């Protein structure tokens, strides 16, 4: 079973690995920089729309973010 925490960890991992500054990523997906900070801290979950935008900007498959692949979480 996939948990909320697994999805949150995957989002955190992908944001940290993207190589973009928080401000750049926030602008690219049309959210505030504070939202990106909260996603990384794990205090806020992005909306479905924001997850879709993250996938598009970071060139990710939604299955990776939703833990529907065999990719391991650190």
Describe this structure in words.
- This protein is an all-alpha fold.
- The protein has one domain: Orthogonal Bundle (434 Repressor (Amino-terminal Domain)).
- Helix content is 62%, strand content 0%.
- It contains 5 helices and no strands.
- It has helices at residues 4-17, 22-29, 33-41, 48-58, 62-65.
- The longest helix has 14 residues, at 4-17.
- It starts with a helix and ends in a 9-residue tail after the last helix.
- The mean pLDDT is 88.
Largest sheet: none
Radius of gyration (CA) equals 11 Å
Q: What do we call the CATH homologous superfamily?
A: lambda repressor-like DNA-binding domains
The CATH architecture assignment turns out to be Orthogonal Bundle
Strand content: under 5%
- Fold-level CATH name: 434 Repressor (Amino-terminal Domain)
CATH class descriptor: Mainly Alpha
- Give a count of the beta strands, DSSP E runs of length 2 or more: 0
**How many individual domains?**
1
Secondary-structure element pattern, one letter each: HHHHH
Task: Give the low-pLDDT segments.
Answer: none
- Helix count, per DSSP? 5
Counting helices, strands and paired strands, the structural category is mainly alpha
| Principal-axis shape | globular
Helix content: 55-70%
Spatial gap, N to C terminus: 18 Å
Mean pLDDT: 88
């Amino acid at each position: 079973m996939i948990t909320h925490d697994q999805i949150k960890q995957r989002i955190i991992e992908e944001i940290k690995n993207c190589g973009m500054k928080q401000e750049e990523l926030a602008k690219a997906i049309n959210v505030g920089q504070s939202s990106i900070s909260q996603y990384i801290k794990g205090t806020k979950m992005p909306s479905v729309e924001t997850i879709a935008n993250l996938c598009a900007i970071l060139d990710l498959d939604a299955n990776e973010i939703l833990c529907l692949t065999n990719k391991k979480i650190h």
